[in-house]
Amino acid sequence: MGYFLLFLAILSWSFVGILVKTAGVMVDSATITFARFSLGIVFLGILLFWRDKKLRIRLNHKWIWIGALGKSCNYYFENLALSSGYSYGNILIGPIQTVILLLLSAFYFKEHVSKRGWAAAAVCIMGVLFISWNGQPIGQIVSGSGLTTFLFVLAAVGTSFHVLSQKVLIQSMDSENMNFSVFFWCSLLMALPLPFQAHATGSFNLWSAGALVLLGLITGLSFNWYAKAMRKVSFSVLILFGNSSVLFSILWSYLFFHEPITLYIIGGAALFIAGLMLLNWPLKHAKLRKSTQA
Protein backbone atom coordinates (compact mmCIF):
# COMPACT_ATOMS: atom_id res chain seq x y z
CA MET A 1 0.00 0.00 0.00
CA GLY A 2 2.89 2.34 0.79
CA TYR A 3 4.32 2.00 -2.72
CA PHE A 4 0.92 2.66 -4.26
CA LEU A 5 0.40 5.85 -2.20
CA LEU A 6 3.91 7.02 -3.06
CA PHE A 7 3.35 6.42 -6.76
CA LEU A 8 -0.03 8.18 -6.55
CA ALA A 9 1.50 11.28 -4.90
CA ILE A 10 4.47 11.51 -7.28
CA LEU A 11 2.32 10.91 -10.35
CA SER A 12 -0.22 13.54 -9.28
CA TRP A 13 2.50 16.16 -8.71
CA SER A 14 3.93 15.50 -12.16
CA PHE A 15 0.60 16.47 -13.72
CA VAL A 16 0.39 19.89 -12.03
CA GLY A 17 2.07 21.74 -14.90
CA ILE A 18 -0.21 20.47 -17.64
CA LEU A 19 -3.30 20.85 -15.42
CA VAL A 20 -2.45 24.51 -14.74
CA LYS A 21 -1.90 25.12 -18.46
CA THR A 22 -5.21 23.41 -19.25
CA ALA A 23 -7.12 25.42 -16.63
CA GLY A 24 -5.41 28.59 -17.90
CA VAL A 25 -7.35 28.27 -21.15
CA MET A 26 -10.48 29.22 -19.18
CA VAL A 27 -9.39 31.29 -16.13
CA ASP A 28 -6.44 33.39 -14.97
CA SER A 29 -3.62 32.26 -12.67
CA ALA A 30 -5.06 33.98 -9.56
CA THR A 31 -8.32 32.06 -9.95
CA ILE A 32 -6.39 28.83 -10.45
CA THR A 33 -4.47 29.47 -7.22
CA PHE A 34 -7.65 30.13 -5.25
CA ALA A 35 -9.32 27.05 -6.75
CA ARG A 36 -6.36 24.81 -5.85
CA PHE A 37 -6.70 25.74 -2.18
CA SER A 38 -10.48 26.04 -1.88
CA LEU A 39 -11.21 22.77 -3.68
CA GLY A 40 -8.28 21.19 -1.85
CA ILE A 41 -9.80 21.88 1.57
CA VAL A 42 -13.13 20.51 0.35
CA PHE A 43 -11.53 17.14 -0.49
CA LEU A 44 -9.38 17.20 2.65
CA GLY A 45 -12.37 18.27 4.77
CA ILE A 46 -14.43 15.32 3.51
CA LEU A 47 -11.58 12.97 4.45
CA LEU A 48 -11.23 14.49 7.93
CA PHE A 49 -14.96 14.54 8.63
CA TRP A 50 -15.28 10.92 7.55
CA ARG A 51 -12.38 9.99 9.85
CA ASP A 52 -12.94 12.22 12.90
CA LYS A 53 -16.60 13.29 12.51
CA LYS A 54 -15.51 16.91 13.06
CA LEU A 55 -13.42 19.67 11.50
CA ARG A 56 -11.02 21.88 13.42
CA ILE A 57 -9.26 24.99 12.11
CA ARG A 58 -6.20 26.16 14.01
CA LEU A 59 -5.55 29.89 14.24
CA ASN A 60 -3.37 30.58 17.28
CA HIS A 61 -0.02 29.31 16.01
CA LYS A 62 2.44 31.55 14.19
CA TRP A 63 3.75 28.65 12.10
CA ILE A 64 0.25 28.08 10.73
CA TRP A 65 0.42 31.60 9.30
CA ILE A 66 4.02 31.23 8.15
CA GLY A 67 3.03 28.04 6.35
CA ALA A 68 -0.07 29.65 4.85
CA LEU A 69 1.83 32.70 3.59
CA GLY A 70 4.62 30.51 2.23
CA LYS A 71 2.34 28.07 0.43
CA SER A 72 0.21 30.92 -0.93
CA CYS A 73 3.30 32.54 -2.44
CA ASN A 74 4.38 29.15 -3.77
CA TYR A 75 1.15 28.47 -5.67
CA TYR A 76 0.58 32.10 -6.72
CA PHE A 77 3.97 32.55 -8.36
CA GLU A 78 4.13 28.96 -9.65
CA ASN A 79 0.78 29.31 -11.42
CA LEU A 80 1.76 32.73 -12.79
CA ALA A 81 5.01 31.32 -14.17
CA LEU A 82 3.33 28.23 -15.62
CA SER A 83 0.74 30.41 -17.36
CA SER A 84 3.49 32.25 -19.23
CA GLY A 85 6.05 29.44 -19.62
CA TYR A 86 6.28 25.74 -20.36
CA SER A 87 4.24 23.21 -18.40
CA TYR A 88 7.42 21.48 -17.14
CA GLY A 89 8.84 24.73 -15.73
CA ASN A 90 7.86 23.95 -12.15
CA ILE A 91 10.53 21.22 -12.03
CA LEU A 92 12.85 24.13 -11.13
CA ILE A 93 11.14 24.64 -7.76
CA GLY A 94 12.52 21.50 -6.10
CA PRO A 95 16.25 22.17 -6.58
CA ILE A 96 15.88 25.90 -5.86
CA GLN A 97 14.00 25.05 -2.66
CA THR A 98 16.82 22.69 -1.67
CA VAL A 99 19.41 25.44 -2.05
CA ILE A 100 17.27 27.94 -0.10
CA LEU A 101 16.78 25.50 2.79
CA LEU A 102 20.52 24.82 2.89
CA LEU A 103 21.26 28.55 3.04
CA LEU A 104 18.68 29.02 5.81
CA SER A 105 20.18 26.10 7.73
CA ALA A 106 23.68 27.49 7.48
CA PHE A 107 23.17 31.25 7.96
CA TYR A 108 19.92 31.59 9.91
CA PHE A 109 19.65 28.45 12.02
CA LYS A 110 23.47 28.20 12.33
CA GLU A 111 23.44 24.50 11.56
CA HIS A 112 26.43 22.70 10.11
CA VAL A 113 26.25 22.01 6.38
CA SER A 114 28.78 19.48 5.12
CA LYS A 115 30.98 19.93 2.09
CA ARG A 116 28.85 17.32 0.38
CA GLY A 117 25.80 19.47 1.06
CA TRP A 118 27.38 22.53 -0.57
CA ALA A 119 28.55 20.41 -3.51
CA ALA A 120 24.99 19.11 -3.96
CA ALA A 121 23.66 22.67 -3.86
CA ALA A 122 26.16 23.71 -6.54
CA VAL A 123 25.11 20.80 -8.78
CA CYS A 124 21.43 21.74 -8.29
CA ILE A 125 22.16 25.36 -9.24
CA MET A 126 24.01 24.21 -12.37
CA GLY A 127 20.98 22.14 -13.36
CA VAL A 128 18.63 25.11 -12.85
CA LEU A 129 20.92 27.37 -14.90
CA PHE A 130 21.07 24.83 -17.73
CA ILE A 131 17.28 24.62 -17.93
CA SER A 132 16.87 28.41 -17.65
CA TRP A 133 19.46 28.99 -20.37
CA ASN A 134 18.19 26.27 -22.73
CA GLY A 135 20.66 27.44 -25.38
CA GLN A 136 18.99 30.84 -25.82
CA PRO A 137 20.76 34.14 -26.54
CA ILE A 138 21.37 36.28 -23.44
CA GLY A 139 18.91 38.97 -24.57
CA GLN A 140 16.10 36.45 -24.92
CA ILE A 141 16.80 35.06 -21.45
CA VAL A 142 16.59 38.50 -19.84
CA SER A 143 13.37 39.46 -21.62
CA GLY A 144 11.58 36.11 -21.50
CA SER A 145 12.65 32.97 -19.67
CA GLY A 146 14.67 34.94 -17.10
CA LEU A 147 11.48 36.48 -15.71
CA THR A 148 9.77 33.08 -15.64
CA THR A 149 12.72 31.59 -13.74
CA PHE A 150 12.55 34.48 -11.26
CA LEU A 151 8.87 33.69 -10.62
CA PHE A 152 9.80 30.07 -9.94
CA VAL A 153 12.49 31.31 -7.52
CA LEU A 154 9.81 33.27 -5.64
CA ALA A 155 7.63 30.15 -5.65
CA ALA A 156 10.54 28.15 -4.21
CA VAL A 157 11.07 30.74 -1.45
CA GLY A 158 7.41 30.35 -0.52
CA THR A 159 7.46 26.57 -0.44
CA SER A 160 10.69 26.61 1.61
CA PHE A 161 8.91 28.43 4.43
CA HIS A 162 5.97 26.04 4.05
CA VAL A 163 8.37 23.12 4.52
CA LEU A 164 9.83 24.77 7.62
CA SER A 165 6.35 25.25 9.05
CA GLN A 166 5.54 21.58 8.43
CA LYS A 167 8.65 20.50 10.33
CA VAL A 168 7.45 22.52 13.35
CA LEU A 169 3.71 21.79 13.17
CA ILE A 170 4.02 18.04 12.62
CA GLN A 171 5.38 17.80 16.19
CA SER A 172 1.94 18.67 17.59
CA MET A 173 -0.52 17.94 14.74
CA ASP A 174 -1.15 15.11 12.31
CA SER A 175 -0.60 15.87 8.63
CA GLU A 176 -4.32 15.97 7.72
CA ASN A 177 -5.30 18.55 10.36
CA MET A 178 -2.13 20.54 9.74
CA ASN A 179 -2.76 20.78 6.01
CA PHE A 180 -6.45 21.53 6.49
CA SER A 181 -5.70 24.54 8.72
CA VAL A 182 -2.88 25.84 6.52
CA PHE A 183 -4.80 25.42 3.25
CA PHE A 184 -7.96 26.95 4.76
CA TRP A 185 -6.11 30.19 5.51
CA CYS A 186 -4.37 29.95 2.13
CA SER A 187 -7.75 29.91 0.39
CA LEU A 188 -8.82 33.06 2.27
CA LEU A 189 -5.54 34.81 1.50
CA MET A 190 -5.79 33.94 -2.18
CA ALA A 191 -9.37 35.22 -2.30
CA LEU A 192 -8.07 38.74 -1.62
CA PRO A 193 -6.62 39.44 -5.11
CA LEU A 194 -9.60 37.93 -6.95
CA PRO A 195 -11.65 41.18 -7.23
CA PHE A 196 -8.68 42.84 -8.95
CA GLN A 197 -7.24 39.97 -11.00
CA ALA A 198 -9.89 37.34 -11.67
CA HIS A 199 -11.04 37.17 -15.27
CA ALA A 200 -11.96 34.63 -17.90
CA THR A 201 -9.23 33.84 -20.39
CA GLY A 202 -11.59 31.90 -22.63
CA SER A 203 -14.98 30.25 -22.78
CA PHE A 204 -16.07 27.53 -20.37
CA ASN A 205 -14.98 24.02 -21.26
CA LEU A 206 -15.10 20.72 -19.42
CA TRP A 207 -11.37 20.03 -19.80
CA SER A 208 -10.41 23.23 -17.95
CA ALA A 209 -13.07 22.71 -15.28
CA GLY A 210 -11.88 19.14 -14.80
CA ALA A 211 -8.28 20.38 -14.51
CA LEU A 212 -9.31 22.73 -11.68
CA VAL A 213 -11.02 19.88 -9.83
CA LEU A 214 -7.98 17.62 -10.22
CA LEU A 215 -5.67 20.40 -8.99
CA GLY A 216 -7.86 20.70 -5.90
CA LEU A 217 -7.75 16.94 -5.37
CA ILE A 218 -3.96 16.95 -5.66
CA THR A 219 -3.64 19.87 -3.22
CA GLY A 220 -5.97 18.29 -0.71
CA LEU A 221 -4.79 14.70 -0.69
CA SER A 222 -1.33 14.24 -2.25
CA PHE A 223 0.63 15.52 0.78
CA ASN A 224 -1.19 13.01 2.98
CA TRP A 225 -0.54 10.18 0.52
CA TYR A 226 3.16 11.05 0.62
CA ALA A 227 3.25 11.33 4.43
CA LYS A 228 1.64 7.89 4.80
CA ALA A 229 4.03 6.41 2.22
CA MET A 230 7.04 7.73 4.16
CA ARG A 231 6.08 5.53 7.11
CA LYS A 232 6.03 2.35 4.99
CA VAL A 233 8.63 2.78 2.23
CA SER A 234 12.41 2.81 2.57
CA PHE A 235 14.16 6.15 2.18
CA SER A 236 16.15 5.03 -0.88
CA VAL A 237 12.87 4.28 -2.67
CA LEU A 238 11.50 7.70 -1.64
CA ILE A 239 14.55 9.39 -3.18
CA LEU A 240 14.32 7.49 -6.46
CA PHE A 241 10.56 7.84 -6.85
CA GLY A 242 10.52 11.44 -5.64
CA ASN A 243 12.96 12.57 -8.28
CA SER A 244 11.14 10.63 -10.98
CA SER A 245 8.33 13.23 -10.94
CA VAL A 246 10.69 15.53 -12.85
CA LEU A 247 10.99 13.01 -15.66
CA PHE A 248 7.22 12.48 -15.71
CA SER A 249 6.61 16.24 -15.93
CA ILE A 250 8.91 16.54 -18.92
CA LEU A 251 7.29 13.53 -20.58
CA TRP A 252 3.74 14.87 -20.11
CA SER A 253 4.69 18.29 -21.48
CA TYR A 254 5.95 16.65 -24.66
CA LEU A 255 3.04 14.23 -25.04
CA PHE A 256 0.19 16.63 -24.23
CA PHE A 257 1.48 20.02 -25.46
CA HIS A 258 4.34 19.00 -27.80
CA GLU A 259 6.65 21.40 -25.97
CA PRO A 260 10.28 21.30 -27.13
CA ILE A 261 12.50 19.12 -24.94
CA THR A 262 16.12 19.97 -25.69
CA LEU A 263 19.38 18.45 -24.49
CA TYR A 264 19.72 21.45 -22.14
CA ILE A 265 16.45 20.49 -20.43
CA ILE A 266 17.42 16.83 -20.14
CA GLY A 267 20.96 17.66 -18.99
CA GLY A 268 19.76 20.23 -16.45
CA ALA A 269 17.18 17.81 -15.04
CA ALA A 270 19.85 15.10 -14.75
CA LEU A 271 22.16 17.52 -12.92
CA PHE A 272 19.75 18.60 -10.25
CA ILE A 273 18.38 15.07 -9.77
CA ALA A 274 21.98 14.03 -9.11
CA GLY A 275 22.37 16.97 -6.72
CA LEU A 276 19.25 16.06 -4.75
CA MET A 277 20.32 12.43 -4.49
CA LEU A 278 23.83 13.46 -3.44
CA LEU A 279 22.36 15.63 -0.69
CA ASN A 280 19.77 13.26 0.72
CA TRP A 281 20.86 9.68 0.26
CA PRO A 282 24.13 9.57 2.29
CA LEU A 283 22.75 11.80 5.07
CA LYS A 284 19.77 9.56 5.68
CA HIS A 285 21.84 6.42 5.77
CA ALA A 286 24.14 8.08 8.30
CA LYS A 287 21.13 8.85 10.50
CA LEU A 288 19.89 5.26 10.16
CA ARG A 289 23.26 3.88 11.22
CA LYS A 290 23.29 6.14 14.29
CA SER A 291 19.77 5.11 15.28
CA THR A 292 20.60 1.42 15.03
CA GLN A 293 23.71 1.90 17.18
CA ALA A 294 21.80 3.81 19.88
Descriptive report:
Helix content is 80%, strand content 0%. It is an all-alpha fold. Its main location: membrane. Residues 1-132, 150-280 form the EamA domain. Keywords: Cell membrane, Membrane, Transmembrane, Transmembrane helix. Belongs to the EamA transporter family.
Features:
single chain, 294 residues, mainly alpha, 12 helices, 0% strand, globular, disordered C terminus, AA-Vitamin_Transporters, EmrE-like
Give me the number of helical elements. 12
Let me know the number of strands.
0
Integer-rounded radius of gyration: 19 Å
User: Shape from CA axes?
Assistant: globular
Query: Fraction of residues in helices?
Result: over 70%
Percent strand equals under 5%
Low-confidence stretches: 282-294
- In round numbers, the mean pLDDT is 89
Structural class: mainly alpha
Would you list the SSEs in sequence order as H and E?
Answer: HHHHHHHHHHHH
For the largest beta-sheet, the strand count, sense and barrel status come to:
none
Distance between the termini: 30 Å
